[in-house]
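Bench log, entry 3. Co-assembly request; chain sequences pasted below exactly as received.
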Amino acid sequence: MLKRIYLSSPYTHREEMQFVKEAFDTNWLAPVGKNIDGLETEINAYINKGIEGMEYRSLALVSGTSALHLALKLAGIQPDETVFCSDSTYCATAFPVSYEGGKQVFIDAERNSWNMDPKALELAFQKYPKTRIVMFAHLYGTPGKMDELLDVCKRHDAILIEDAAEALSSSYHGRQCGTFGKYNAISFNGNKIITTSGGGMLITEDEATRQKALYLATQARQPVIWFEHSDIGYNYRMSNIIAGIGRGQMLHLDEHHAMKKHIYETYKEGFKGLPVSMNPIPSDCESNYWLSCILIDRGVDVKPMDILEKLKTVANAEGRPMWKPMHMQPVFAGSDCVSLEEKPVGTDLYERGLCLPSDLHMDDNDMKMIIETVKSCF
Ligand SMILES: *Cc1c(COP(=O)(O)O)cnc(C)c1O
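Structure output for the full assembly:
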């Protein structure tokens, strides 16, 4: 039996257990402690690289989804408010809008980075001019067209929330993803480039905003000794145990990034001559190469499902279809998707694209087998 090859599974080292053990040894099994502070400090140092005049501040939370929820709260989302949202993404970009009773209008992707199309966003503002909040996600670790998107937001006086869940260590014009929006989220879910098993962070522009989010994330407790509440809060703070896993992982973030890049480049080389292309990475950014994807050329009679099935049966390897666009999801039936094309780009990518095994445990032989398996489909 061939060993199982996963899409993107946790890749751990030795240091994680040392930080976790320290939490046990000192009895800090709580949503406060040295590992949480340490992880926040380390992320702050990482994301602020190359930024002058500002210092972004991170807040460790139970998930990336909770970070996006708090981002919407901070943006002041109101019931029934329309929020623009990336269409080609994981559900967690869109769901928090519904937690607050808001309504998503989805914005189609462009073909250069597979992220939200600034021109479609502009068109959406023509159609829904009162919109104040844009929920943007970087797909598969590749940064979107941030200059253009921020320019459109600025012209329409809108707030950008950046879902950088998949894009930790990716950068655009030398600036780290997670520092482009007014409120930003990253994720440490088990499948991401580094993990805490589950967890995430909200990234804010200053400490005062971070404190507001911390208040909401810890049940909105007033600063008095008895339990006094003037607002509805949430129990969203990260545990000191899992923050220890994150501290160990942070030591290897750049190494994981380099390994993901190697996987992408190996596939790209291996597929030369096949009627497929890789997920595009524009030259003005650095992707973290979180997932490697292929798009089957138009008119070729091979379906993503054919390849996925063969990967499973021949190589015991896990691939996935592309994120199914949000406007195609039954739960969002009837919602608008603003696109410049008759058939949204996201729909086309979904029909022709797939995510390849992008696991850090793969070696060159595993990748060779996957490449041969894909080749055999054509
Ligand atoms: C993983 C992911 C999230 C959510 O993160 P969790 O930590 O799993 O809640 C949000 N958005 C995108 C695009 C993601 O891929």
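Residues 63-65, 89-90, 92-93, 137, 163, 165-166, 187, 189, 200 surround pyridoxal-5'-phosphate (CB under 6 Å). The first strand starts at residue 57 and ends at 61.
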